[in-house]
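Query structure, 192 tokens:
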């Protein structure tokens, strides 16, 4: 039965055995091709026998990590498809998935050029997580402090800067810096 007396072609009744509600926007189930209301539209809500009819299934080869689609096949057919894959010659262990960085949410594939082995915990990580603080290092309890080198005092760094600057411009600023600063101070005092 469809619609109402005034509009017989409007809407459909839910085909769930306990419902039969008139719905003006019914849903068609792709598993059993029946019409349902909003409340019974999911496979689970109306106990659809063909719920996996439209779903895709894939099995993964343990040797080469190749995925093989097995939609609509039973267990025996899946086994035969896997045997055919092994015999076909396309099953290549070299195609097996490469190792990934063990840091959470990092998807970097570890290769020869981007892999670092942590000296503390001996775990292979990508270059982004090479610092012990960036990965779950076993020795995280230790506090990492950086002490300045003895040659990096304030005077020594200023001297190195002036020496580098003089080499760049071709002038020797390293000796006359203090004098020029004193001369500016003397001019400022004499003006006032």
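Result returned for the query:
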């Amino acid at each position: 039965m469809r619609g109402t007396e005034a509009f017989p072609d409007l809407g459909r009744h839910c085909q769930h055995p306990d419902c039969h509600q008139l719905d003006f926007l019914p849903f068609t189930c792709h598993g059993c091709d029946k019409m349902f209301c909003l409340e019974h539209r999911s496979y689970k809500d109306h106990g659809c026998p063909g719920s996996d009819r439209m779903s895709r299934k894939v099995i993964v080869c343990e040797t080469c990590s190749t995925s093989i689609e097995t939609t609509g096949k039973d267990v025996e057919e899946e086994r035969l498809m896997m045997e055919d894959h092994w015999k076909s010659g396309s099953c290549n262990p070299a195609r097996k998935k490469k190792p990934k960085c063990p840091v959470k949410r990092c998807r970097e594939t570890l290769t020869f050029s981007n892999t670092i082995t942590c000296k503390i915990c001996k775990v292979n990580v990508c270059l982004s997580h090479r610092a012990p603080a960036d990965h779950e290092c076993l020795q995280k309890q230790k506090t990492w402090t950086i002490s300045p080198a003895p040659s990096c005092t304030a005077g020594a760094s200023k001297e190195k800067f002036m020496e580098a600057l003089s080499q760049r411009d071709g002038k020797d600023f390293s000796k006359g810096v203090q004098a020029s600063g004193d001369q500016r101070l003397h001019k400022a005092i004499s003006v006032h």
